[in-house]
């Protein structure tokens, strides 16, 4: 009532907001020591050849994607979507990114012949030191650049198109593979796509939700595939969960896929046992 008389707006107390602020502070604090306390690990999910994927037959692995996991004693398993954006905001992402590169390249060293894809966030891509950071990590590990693939998102690239293009082109000139992740969810025009130094696109799993029943989304998928082919880009369909999706994608002409149908991300010890793929394009 007093507040009303002074003309100040009455802001109702929102415990949820307070909880989320407290949560954020707790998370940020715990994240500061996550590396030194060895709470991080990578898991590896296979990308498979769809043309050879058959029910009951173990899929042919084309490469793997490294995915970051954080097990905090205080907070439990924290999902990447909960801590990576935070790390981007407070700058921790650079230390995390270097840790991820070193761990993924150590895995690659122990699994020669298997290419490892590493996710690079917007803040890393926007960093002038990205090229040096990646090349230094490669040098430390002794792994060939061609055994490393970097996944960048459309959104991250578009934040600084010229800078990102320059850095990715330099890395590719050294032999590193570059992939556009979550493709189709951003706002890049076809012209932008043509100008990027990428060799592969990963079609966001959003597209799998409708493609099976809607002829119009099927037309979109066909067009994207045709365009990618014309641009000489390999295409991976992300988030394949059912045999029906797999079959539909294969019929459309998709050659590479990733998703729970072929396997959950594997712990390192399991991933080290994966059969090394025969050399193949893409
Ligand atoms: P992403 O790069 O698009 O990775 C694919 C995500 O989809 C992974 O989630 C994976 O576990 C999940 N996934 C795989 N197959 C299926 C499926 O069939 N169905 C469904 N619903 N999901 C599937 P995850 O591991 O939680 O990672 C989420 C995102 O966090 C990643 O998306 C990536 O953007 C980011 N991320 C993960 N690891 C790293 C990292 O080391 N560095 C950076 N900067 N970002 C990372
Ligand atoms: Mg990815
Ligand atoms: Mg993706
Ligand atoms: Mg995604």
UniProtKB/TrEMBL annotation:
Domain EAL, residue spans: 24-279
Top-level taxon of origin: Bacteria
Annotated protein name in UniProt: Diguanylate cyclase
Organism of provenance: Deinococcus aquiradiocola
Positions spanned in the full protein: 522 to 803 of 803
């Amino acid at each position: 009532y007093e507040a009303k008389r002074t003309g100040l707006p009455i802001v109702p107390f929102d415990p949820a907001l307070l909880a989320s602020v407290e949560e954020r502070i707790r998370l940020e604090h715990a994240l500061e020591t996550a590396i030194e306390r060895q709470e991080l690990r990578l898991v590896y999910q296979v990308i498979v050849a769809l043309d050879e994927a058959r029910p009951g037959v173990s899929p042919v692995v084309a490469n793997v994607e490294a995915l970051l996991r954080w097990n905090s004693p205080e907070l439990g398993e924290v999902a990447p979507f909960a801590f990576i954006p935070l790390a981007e905001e407070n700058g921790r992402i650079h230390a995390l990114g270097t840790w991820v590169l070193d761990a993924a390249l150590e895995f690659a060293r122990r699994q020669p012949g298997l290419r490892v894809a590493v996710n690079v966030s917007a803040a890393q891509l926007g960093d002038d030191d990205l090229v040096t950071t990646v090349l230094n990590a490669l040098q430390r590990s002794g792994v060939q650049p061609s055994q490393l693939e970097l996944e960048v998102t459309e959104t991250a690239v578009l934040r600084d198109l010229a800078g990102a293009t320059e850095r990715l082109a330099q890395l590719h000139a050294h032999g590193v593979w570059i992939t556009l992740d979550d493709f189709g969810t951003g706002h890049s025009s076809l012209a932008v796509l043509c100008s990027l130094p990428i060799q592969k696109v990963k079609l966001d799993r959003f597209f799998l939700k409708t493609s099976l029943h809607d002829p119009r989304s099927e037309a979109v998928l066909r067009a994207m595939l045709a365009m990618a082919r014309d641009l000489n880009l390999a295409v991976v369909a992300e988030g394949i969960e059912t045999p029906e999706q797999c079959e539909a994608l294969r019929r459309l002409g998709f050659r590479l896929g990733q998703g729970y149908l072929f396997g959950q991300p594997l712990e390192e010890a399991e991933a080290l046992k994966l059969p090394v793929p025969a050399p193949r394009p893409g």
